[in-house]
């Protein structure tokens, strides 16, 4: 039986009276590229921080299959974490920061130096390796931040908003980098707000709202869930009755856009031929067809559509802990040999306090948590 690389079951986390993650379950298989998508404040960052061990869940279980069998322990040398906020030491030269992060994660210094030089050259930053991080632009700082999270060749990369602060050209570059990570054997779990990039990159998409899973699956599975096929954009000489179009065979929804066009969504089993028969009574000035996008699905699942309507016959808004699109395999993992424990513990090893102004690293050793000054060499 295949053990998921990550399996979450009924995870809950609250801060005072605010429930950030509520009965959340999911699984990530080895080699997958999985996107976590939701509005600001949905609980994405909290969820990712619990996975890497920076936060402790109040309830639920997290199991890892990095070694082929379920375990509650996660070796920090085998993971890479890109935080949403800047986590770099801004008054330290770029090369020294990267060497520090790589050796912190167990990479031999000689290998770290070679990889740092290679990557800086590839990222176009070789001539700025000796400059302080603060001299770099926001986009170049994001490149260095990303590099610091994957330089040691992790088995699992957890990336929180990797496209933040990037222009379109660098977004494309990062798409290629993340695909290369997966090709090299790294499993990637990432969050993002750029729907068009998520659609091009992710094997599966997990939607989260108010700390709860709204479902998970491939883009095609999401389209089937909404029973949505293609979107048709029409310009007619006449002004037809929307109710007539909505009642036509194969049509899931019909709206008028701000540009005066008609936007129709076909059912998954609907055909363009059925629609053409319906509109044959009108004078068609223009007709375009396209697939329903992740952006559309996100709006319909996580929030209201721009016109304030949901598609007819929409499925349930998602039960606590997921939907029929994906059932987490924590219990399957337990059947494969994991031992249940009544409590959580932080994952052993180093955890970076990357926020600006916090110039230290938290270290957990023998149950002791202390602060160690940062002395890059």
Comma- or semicolon-separated keywords:
377 residues; alpha/beta; Rossmann fold; Alpha-Beta Plaits; 2 domains; six-stranded mixed β-sheet; four-stranded antiparallel β-sheet; 16 strands; 28% helix; disordered C terminus
Describe, in plain words, how this protein is organized in 3D:
This protein has a 6-stranded mixed β-sheet with strand order 5-6-7-3-8-9, with helices on both faces. It has a 4-stranded antiparallel β-sheet with strand order 11-12-10-13. A 3-stranded antiparallel β-sheet has the order 2-1-4. It starts with 5 loop residues before the first strand and ends with a strand. It has 2 domains: 6-92 and 139-221 and 321-373, 3-Layer(aba) Sandwich (Rossmann fold); 227-291, Alpha-Beta Plaits (2-Layer Sandwich), CATH 3.30.70. β6, α5 and β7 form a beta-alpha-beta unit. α2 (94-104) packs parallel to α4 (138-150). The protein is built from 11 helices and 16 strands. The protein is α/β, with parallel strands linked by helices and 377 residues long. It has helices at residues 44-52, 94-104, 109-122, 138-150, 168-183, 195-201, 219-225, 242-246, 272-279, 294-302, 330-335; strands spanning 6-15, 18-28, 33-37, 59-64, 79-82, 156-160, 187-191, 204-209, 212-217, 228-236, 251-256, 262-267, 284-291, 349-352, 360-365, 368-373.
